[in-house]
Structure formats: structure tokens, C-alpha cells
Design goal:
Blueprint lengths: L2 E9 L4 E2 L4 E6 L2 E7 L5 E9 L2 E8 L8 E7 L2 E4 L2 E4 L2 E4 L4
Parallel strand pairs: 1-8, 1-9
Antiparallel strand pairs: 1-2, 1-5, 3-4, 3-6, 6-7, 9-10
């Protein structure tokens, strides 16, 4: 079995991608992957070849209010796209394709 993860961050206040956002993938307290969004707001492949299980995705978005957004997710076999939409005072995520 193999798990892969990608992500993107969109600044909904400007309607543009959010470059330079640090994204971490943790299993327990251990960082297993680290990336920074590019000019297109994406980390095309944060990690590949993980074991299925419970992970935390941590975003450090460009917001005066949200300095850390952490999602705990159960990753099964396959590819998972985990985007973050953020504005100065709100954020939302969903399971992408």
C-alpha cells in the first residue's frame, strides 16, 4: 500500500494563490514531510510512499488571525489532495481530487 499527498493554498481575500506557505505533514509528533507553496500556491507532491494511517497536515497561512491551521486526517491507500482556502478571518478545507 502507498499513500501520497498534495496540497494548495488559496488566499480567498485576494482570489489568488498563496505562495510561501509552509506546510508540514506529521505522524504523531514526527514531521514526515515539509513543503512550501510555490507561486501557484501548490505543493504538487508533499510526500509519496507513506503507509496508510492517521496524520496531521499543518499549514502556516498568510493571515493576521490564523497563524497555524492543523487538520488530522485518516489517509488510506491512494492519492490525497488537501487544499486550504484562507482569508484574514476565515478558513476552510476539503478533500480534493
Amino acid at each position: 500500500m502507498s499513500v501520497s499527498v498534495s496540497t494548495h493554498v488559496l488566499d480567498t481575500a485576494t482570489g489568488r494563490p498563496a505562495p510561501g506557505v509552509r506546510v508540514e505533514l506529521l505522524r504523531g509528533a514526527q514531521v514526515v514531510a515539509l513543503g512550501v507553496t510555490g507561486e501557484d500556491g501548490r505543493v504538487a507532491q508533499l510526500v509519496a510512499d507513506l503507509d496508510p494511517g492517521t496524520y496531521s497536515v499543518v499549514f502556516h497561512p498568510p493571515s493576521p488571525f490564523f497563524t497555524r491551521v492543523e487538520l488530522q486526517v485518516e489517509l488510506a491507500d491512494g492519492h490525497h489532495h488537501l487544499p486550504l482556502l484562507v482569508s484574514p478571518y476565515g478558513c476552510v478545507t476539503y478533500r480534493g481530487s
